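Thread: zinc ion complex, take 2
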Amino acid sequence: MGLAIVDLRCPRNLDTGVDWSSAPEYREKGAGHETELQDRHSGIVGCGVSVSRVLFDRIASGGHDLSGTLPTVRQYIASDRRRVLGQVQVRYYGYNGFVVEGNEYKVVIDPGGDLYLLRMRPVIPRTEWNGVTHIVVTHGDPDHCWHVDRVAEASGAPVICGTQLVERHESRWFLASPRARKLEYTTPIERVVPMQPGEATRVEGIDIRAIRTEHGPLRLSMLFGLIHKEFTTEADERFALGATGFVLDLDGVRIATLGDSIMLPEWQTLSLDVLIIPIGGRKAGNTMDEEQAVAAVALIRPRLVIPCHYNCGFLFRRTANPADTERFRAGVEALGVRCAIMVPGDELDYSSSDSDALP
Ligand SMILES: [Zn+2]
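Output below.
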C-alpha cells in the first residue's frame, strides 16, 4: 500500500487554521508531532506523516464521504495541495532557470544572467530569492551562474555544484567568480556542497545525486555570419566549468536537470519523474537539439519532460538558439511520455500520486 501522502504533523499549526484535534479519529502520540489517524469506516490506518494511498484517493476524489469523521483531511488537501507529499510546483524563467518548490523546500536551478543585450538581468527574478533553501548550479557559464553568489547571500542557502566550480583556501570556500572574465576563485561563498558525478548526498532534507554531463562546444555566428567564434573546454578554461547534472529527490518526486549537455547513453540507468532537458543546440551545438533530446527521453523514459534552454537571448538576438517545440513535443509524446512546454513565467504542479495534475 502506498504511503507518505499527507503530512499530518503539527495539526494545530497548519496555515489552514483548522484544529485537527477536533477530529474524533485524531489523537496525538506523546509530546512530539507524530500522529495516528484511523478511518473507522474502512479500517485503514496511517501513521506519522503517512496516510494510506487508498484513503488519500478516496478523499481526493470525493468518492467516499468522510466529512463526518475526517473533515480536516479533506479541507487540508483542498486548501494547500502543495503540502501533500509527492507534489511539487515547477516555475520556469528561461535559459536553464527553474524554481522547484514543495513541502518545506524551494530549490533554485541555475540563477544566471540574461545575455540579451548583455544586460545580465537575473534569469531567476529577485522576488524569488527569499526563502530559497537550495541553489543548484549545472556549470559556471554566465547564463547559469552570474547571480549565484547573490542568491546565496540573499537566502543563506547552500550552493550545490560540480567540484571545479569552487576552491578551498585556508578553510574558506571560494566560487569561480561568476562575473570575472578569467578563471579566478575569488568570490567567497559561505555554504557549498561540491559534488563529483556519481556522488550522492543529502543536503538539508533533499537527496541529491550528481550525474555526468558534457557541455558541447559553442559555435557562435554574429553580424550576419561575418564573425564566427567557437568556444571549447580545451581552448577556454572558463567555458563550461564544472559541468554536472543533478538528480533531486523532492518528497519522492525525482527531478533531473542536465545543464547544457549533449546526449550521453549512460543516462539510460536514470529513473525519473521529471526530466528537464535542453533542446536549443541545433545551430550553436552547445546542447542537444530537438531530435537528440527526444533520443535522450527515449533512453530515460521519465514521466514528464520539460524542455529548456531554447529561444534564449544573446547580444542583439532575442532567440539565439531556436527550437521547434511542437516537433519536440510530438517526438516525446510518440514515446508515451508527457511533455510540458513552458514559457518564461509559467508554472505547473506535478504530483506523483495524481496524474490529473499534469498539464
Ligand atoms: Zn547555457
